[in-house]
Write a structure and sequence with these properties.
The chain is of the alpha+beta class. It has four domains: about 100 residues, 2-Layer Sandwich (Alpha-Beta Plaits); about 70 residues, MutS, DNA mismatch repair protein, domain I, CATH 3.40.1170; about 55 residues, 5' to 3' exonuclease, C-terminal subdomain (DNA polymerase, domain 1, Orthogonal Bundle); about 110 residues, Dna Ligase, domain 1. A five-stranded mixed sheet has the order 5-6-1-7-8. About 30% of the residues are buried. The chain binds a DNA duplex (13 and 18 nucleotides) through strand 2, strand 3, helix 3, strand 9 and strand 10.
Amino acid sequence: MVRVIGHVDLDYFYAQVEEVENPSLRGKPVLVCVFSGRTEDSGVVSTANYVAREFGVRSGMPIVLAKKKLEGRDAVFIPVHDERYEAVSDGVMQLVGERVDVLEKTGIDEAFFDITMSSGADYSVARTLAAGIKTAIRESHGLSASIGLGRSKIVAKIASDFMKPDGLTVVTPESTVEFLGPLPVLKLYGVGPKTAEALAALGIRTIGDLASFDVGSLHERLGRKTAAYLHTAARGEDEEPVTERQGPTQLSRIITLKRNTRDADEAFNELMPAMDDLHHRLVSNGTSFRTLSTIGVLTDLSVKTKSKTFENPVEDLSLLKDDVRGLLQALSGSAGREFRRVGIRVSELSSKGDQTSLTQFY
DNA sequence: GTATGCTTTCGGC
DNA sequence: TTACGGCCGAAAGCATAC
């Protein structure tokens, strides 16, 4: 069955929202930053606009390094305004949702959609629909977006990335193999540096190399599951449906400590406000959880976690302070170096509605 | 072997 | 020369049960 799947990606999202709110920023390097508060400029760049990227600035780069690269360039450094981005995202997603059959939001600035029905499975009609979505986003929010269309999620995602910013890339089913062929295997979702290296050892560098490679040999080298996945992915033939997501599957907060420490109690005390905040989020959403985790980012920036899962859903995170403390102590004991940042995460979430409907069966 | 559940790590944005 | 967040979802790793 021929499907028409899309992927929409809002360009350099946080920085673009800042530009919309303050048009005088346009043309300047704009960097939306997370200031950790430890020292004057400690923290990283969350998003840089394309002007800043010209100078080698990237997401995740330390702010002080970005400042060096942009010395004398009239660059603007703005702290993140999460609530604003959430609000804009909600508006955009609602608007897109009205124009497609199914919308699957996968992040604050991106979503998959299915327009098989509304396009009548016609890629020419689909192109017009996608162009309409871009126009609607621009007219209502002043934002540019990049959209890719293809026969599957994999193709749509790669297509949206193909032409940025403000791109529209349509990959028909017939042109899929030709489109994917020249691209490096790293472009495939699920292929990271490790798999790419294993493939390179077999002489496979492009998706085209992969598509024409003998499946049996792939199987021997990489295992059955990976081989099967790569075989279909290289042809853009994955069958993953676009499905609406009901809510997050995990919630977390993480903070940067005022100073590095191995002392779990000191870290716990500093984590308390974030933990309370997470508690309030859970209560106001009526969300329970079964798994509790602590996260430690050590001085070498490596990440360690400790978690525990309860038999029954827990509603009240504030009752688990001793568990959190205990997990942090276990982390500290096994970490071997000081904490730089610590965090808390809850997962295996359920809503109150879910639980009552489940209890009806018992 | 395969399915399942839990813990930990990885990697995208 | 170094510099360094805060989230999220999914994969990987591991143990246990059938």
